[in-house]
Structure formats: structure tokens, C-alpha cells
Amino acid sequence: MRKLIHATLCAATMLAGATTIARADWLEDAAKPLAGTEISGIFLDRPGYRAIIKLLPEFEKKTGIKVNYEIVPYENTREKEVLNFTSQGDLTMALVDLVWIGEFAENGWIEPVEKFTADASITDPNLKLEGFFPLLLDAFGSWGGKVYGLPFDNYSGLLFYNSCMLKDAGFDGPPKTWDELKDVYGPKLTADGKYAFALQSLRGETQSADSFMRVLWPFGGSLLDKDFKSNLNSAESQKGLQFRQDLMKYMPPGIVSFDHAEAVNALAQGQVAMITEWSAFYGTLTDPATSKLGDCLAVAPEPEGPAGRLPALGGFSLAVASQASDEQKKATWLFIQWATSEEIARAYVEAGGVSGRMAIYNEADIKAKYKFVEPMVASWQKGVPEFRPRFPAWPAISEIVAEFGSKMMLGEVTVEGGAKEIGTRMEAILEKEGYYDGKKEKLQ
């Protein structure tokens, strides 16, 4: 089972030598010996990355450190990073999805932050690891009792909806349960070429995580049981997967080709009334250049299932790549601290990012201005880091889930048959990896 890291938080904070006195010039002082150093990483074409790019000139001016980045589609990011790390390439910073943390840490591709927090000359005296939401630091940045990365691009699954469409259909608020969404809202909101709901389901990680896994937990199902055997043919898992099939009649045709951009755009343009999407897309849905919603945009927690409200959890941390030179490691550590700091949290949020820091969401004006804040913060009080298993075997299993999850939705296999196929292939991978003979810890 996943290890709790509360002790790690305390230890790492002590190593950082954190003080209650902030030095406004700490970054400039720390960067003086590193002026002219170039660091490099991968960003995604998503709001949080556009936000930090907008703020980058401030960091580069203060430090003299040049931040090089390449914008890569999510589907290609892990492969590109792994190839770079195994060939001793030029990346100095790792972008780590929560399901990659085990693979990256166990292969030694990223450095634990304790290596840097032990050096006060390059560590923010107000680093305050305890200032992150514990769930995020645990899920996105920690493995084996150590912190490797700091939460950067942080997501909670939320229900975004067109309140005007719902009102016109006779509803004064969003559905509270998944069954209500399908059975009550679905029929009334699907008419005249418009649809009640869109569930991004493109084959790949979008299918395996955003679509397939999203209907397991709320219905009491899961990918694996306590013995690390497939649990997909349990009554609860089957109920969730069948629910998804039944919900498709209220989704646009071709939903299996919808990635995040297509789902968000369908809501933004009035094609669908509701989507369950990541908090990070709030900026896209409020931008008049990309959305027609205006005051009709509303946000709520994801609906409850028979097992309760168990929203999707996703996000990334930034970590120092082990292959970097000593100077690049230090410069990269400075950038990561700055990009995830309380100091720039407000500017980051106002530019479209979603900070992992708790303090910013206590600000009254932030809560009032950004409708997603309260439901997102509520979901981070109780969450499921194993929403997608974080072990190193996940990337291979994800491909299997994506393949047969797509085939289920397309009617090429039955829900029961597809679940059996995933289970058989998944267990073969886990057996090969040593998960059944005691050679591997199961979940950190």
C-alpha cells in the first residue's frame, strides 16, 4: 500500500532549514554564481504552462539563468523524457506525471529534494513544503518515503456546466449523482443536435485515466484488488464500466475521439451541457476568445456514485534530472522552487495556472473570482492518489486499458470481455515485474 509521507514532510522541511523570516533577495543571491547557466525542460500546451511562460522573464531577469523549454503533446512527453534520460540527453528538469513518479524515481532519473534542501545557499528560507496540499505533495512528488518533485500543474476533476442550458431544461442546479446525470439530466439535455455530457475518451492516457478510471472509483470498483490481481470483473467495477456505456447515448457521436481540447471546446461552444474536466481548464472556459459561455459557466464537484464522491486526481511535479551537471542541477532547483512558491502563487493563478499551495486559496478575492477554487479545494481534502496506480508498471498497463477501454466504448468487445482481457494482460505484466513473488513493493 501507499506509504504516508507526513514524516517526510517534517524531515524535508527541517533539512531545508526553513525560517519564518523571508529574505526578498534570496533568489538573486543564490543565483549569482549560476548566472549564464542554461536549463531545459518540457512543457505542455495547457494553461498552467502558458502561465509560467508568461512569468518567466521575471525569473530570468532576477537570476541570469536561461530557461529553455519545448512544448510537447502530453501523449509524447513520457516517451520523449525517457529517451532523453536513457541517452544522457540535455534535459535538466523532469516533468513528472503522478503515474510516472515510481518509474522515474526507481530508475534514478530524478534527484530527491533532500539533496538540495541540505544546502541553505540554494534553498528558499520560506520553501515550506508543509504549505503544499499534503495530497498533492504525496501523489505527485513523493516515492519510497522521499520527496522528489514539487507540485506544479495541479488538477482536480470537476463538473463544469452551462447553467443557462440547465435552467432552460428546468434544472436549478447540477446533478448531485452520476445516476441523476444519466437518468434525469441526460434525456432532457440531449436534443436538437446538442448533448448532455462529454467524457473525453481518446485512446491513450485520456482513455485509460480520464475516461475508464473515472467510472471505477465512484461505483466502488478499482483496477486491482488488495492482492494486486485484476478487480475489473467485480460487480462494482462492472457496474461503473456499464454505466459509461449507457451514458454514451447522451454524448456526441465520435466521443471516443475526444481529447481534452475537444471536450472543453464542446462545452465552450454550447454543444454539450456538462463535462467532467480538470480544474486547469477553467481559464480556457472563461476566456472570451475561446468560449461563448460567459456568465453561464458554473462549476461543481464531480457527481457522487454509490461509493461516494471520489473525484479524479491528476497533476505533475517538477523534479531535478540526475543527468544534469552540478551547476544545472542547482539552477534547475532554483527555478522549481520559484515556479511552485507561495511568492508567485497569486501571479501564477491570475495568469491561468493552478497552484498547489494552500495559502493562496484562503484569499477572499481569489475564492470570489475563480469559481473552481472551492470545489477543487474540497476535493483535495479527501482524494485517492491511487486513482491511477503510481507504480512503474503503469505506462505498460495504461496502453492495455486504453486499447480495450476504447474497444468497449466502440462496441467491439463487451464490458465483461474487455475487462477480462485487460485483467489477463495486466496480471502478466505484474507477474513479469515481480509483483507476485515479493520482489516489488506494491504501492508506495
From TrEMBL:
Keywords: Periplasm, Signal. One of its GO terms (cellular component) is periplasmic space. The keyword Plastid does not apply. InterPro entries: Bact_solute-bd_prot1 (IPR050490), SBP (IPR006059). It is found in: Periplasm. Residues 1-24 form the signal peptide. Belongs to the bacterial solute-binding protein 1 family. This is Carbohydrate ABC transporter substrate-binding protein (CUT1 family).
